[in-house]
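We store amino acids, tokens; thus:
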Amino acid sequence: MSISPLTLLTPKRPGQNRFRPILAKTASKQVKQQFPETKLAFLLFYQRAFYRPTYLMRHTLFAFIVLLGFTSCAQSQDKKSTASAQKQTQKPTAVSHEGLAVATFAGGCFWCTEESAEKLKGVQDVISGYTGGTTKNPTYEAVSSGTTGHAEAIQIYYDPKVVSYQTLLEAFFAAHDPTTLNRQGPDEGTQYRSAIFYRTPEEKTQIDAYIKKLNAARAFQAPIVTQVAPLKEFYPAEEEHQDFYKNNPNNPYMRAVSKPKLEKFKKKMEGKLKENE
């Protein structure tokens, strides 16, 4: 049996503004299969608009902005044609990594995770890149295809006298959802997996203990699925992906996805951030 869009747009009775509970009970599976979430959202929006014209006037602009924002990290940038990519600026000066400790994490799109890590006290430099796969010298396009085995990751250079590895772990779990397998928000694929790449047995012990603690405390609504693996090789991403959040504040993905995540992160890590952050 096929479900017509007109059926979805029809209220239960004349004059009723609430849409039918179409995702309830037996109809749920059929509706989801026939109407993917994005299309279904449009149907529900226009159902309300049809019976309440003022709804359309008030919400069209808002809906347009949200739909623009909820694209994936990969889709929101065409490096050959996007104006924001043409305005990319390089990091002002190279930061010396001498005497600094290094940590590598993957928590979804690196445009946001890089900015989160940059705000921590004691962090001197953060490099966006790729790791965890088998392809040598991968490109952004190749990693985005999900065929390289690599994850979008960040390499953090920090002063262990100012910030501990334990604090970096806390920040990592505060910056993303570690319970969704191969997915962060609108970004889906193994390249967006949650992962921690350790360098020493001591780091692995610390990681395993902290994950066990979080699960025992039920810090999240579901068990943590973060991959814990030894670091093999880290490949820095292309220059246009470094400091992407700072260089592209008006990018739809930055405004709709990254900025809200960053604000939540700042609240969770209050007291451990650099001044004026």
Summary: The beta strands are 101-107, 123-131, 151-158, 183-184, 187-188, 194-198, 227-230, 235-236. The chain has eleven helices and eight strands.
